[in-house]
Amino acid sequence: MKLNTLEDLLHHELKDLYSAEKQLTKALPRMAKAADNAELRKGFELHLQQTHGHVARLEQIAEGWGKSLGRHKCKAMEGLLEEGKELISEEANEDVRDAGLIGAAQRVEHYEIAGYGTARALAARLGLADAASLLQQTLDEERETDEKLTELARSMVNEAAAAPDQEG
Ligand code: FE
Ligand code: FE
Question: Whose C-alpha in 60, 80, 101, 163 is 20 to 30 A from the C-alpha of 67?
Fold first, then answer.
């Protein structure tokens, strides 16, 4: 793929996000299953629903723009999810694993936030107002998810600090 214009770059960014989101729909059920904390598990399940919507929005954008989204693999998401998989396979204390899962999930969200921020800015610059607005909606959901994960991590650390002798 030649990147001569900002259109080309936006097309590339959309393909990358599409691949990333599709990989994530396969990983989130695994992350939900690995989570011990009920709120964290529900959070992953909710984000899976949202992620299906993110895939659909990208398809809607591509269709409206007359472009295809196939044949590209987001290697960064592949790597991030591989690291999450490794973490899940480690023998771990449940609370510690949950904290690790939050870290893995936040890495994913930050990657997506960067990608959607870039794509949204490009779409706006190119006068693709509908695309920009759809990308903004997903960006808002990714940010919200990231904030919820931060809150959850804080509350879990506080609970652990309040009951340090629980298991010993
Ligand atoms: Fe997403
Ligand atoms: Fe990527």
Answer: 80
